[in-house]
Amino acid sequence: MNEGERTGKKIGYVRVSDKDQSEALQIDALKAAGCDMIYGDHGVSGKIKHRRGLDEMLAGLQSGDTLVVWKLDRLGRSTIHLLQLLSDLRDRDVDFQALTQGIDTTTAVGRMLYGQLAVFAEFEREQISDRTKAGMEAARKRGVKIGRPSALTDDQIAQARELVRIQGLSYAEIAARFNVSKQTIARVV
Hints:
Order of helices and strands: EHEHEHEEHHHH
Number of domains: 2
Radius of gyration: 26 Å
Helix content: 40-55%
Strand content: 5-15%
Oligomer: single chain
Distance between the termini: 66 Å
Number of helices: 7
CATH superfamily of the largest domain: Resolvase, N-terminal catalytic domain
Structural class: alpha/beta
CATH class of the largest domain: Alpha Beta
Number of strands: 5
CATH topology of the largest domain: Rossmann fold
Strand order of the largest sheet: 2-1-3-4-5
């Protein structure tokens, strides 16, 4: 098989907002690129992650297929969403082409781009994780409790500890009294 040849189908995707009248232009370009099928969303912002046409198209893609768009921003406006989509396509062995930008992962240069996008996606995930951790730490320092609420009040925890220490009750017996699991009692005593 020569570079650029795939055994799967070429699947096109178009998106136009109400203000954007380029739908016919996009469809013509996708047909000229040899798309076997074209999905689309009309009057839907690229900022919306879940779009009917996009979701149907993504669900139908198979290994060996190539997703073709007129421009990258037709797929989405959020950088993280685009990176996630492209990473998902790569993981599913689906190639990607953005016609007006010369992005084509059926070529060596395009596959290199996929690798770079994967690095950027990982970097973005780490940045989000770091910001989340920093925010949680700042909240803890302000006295905000993180996580789900405790199944027991502070008084009940003190009572449970006394029941173990003084009366020698088992975790199962104490759990039954407070209507919680044995694991909950084990965590707090």
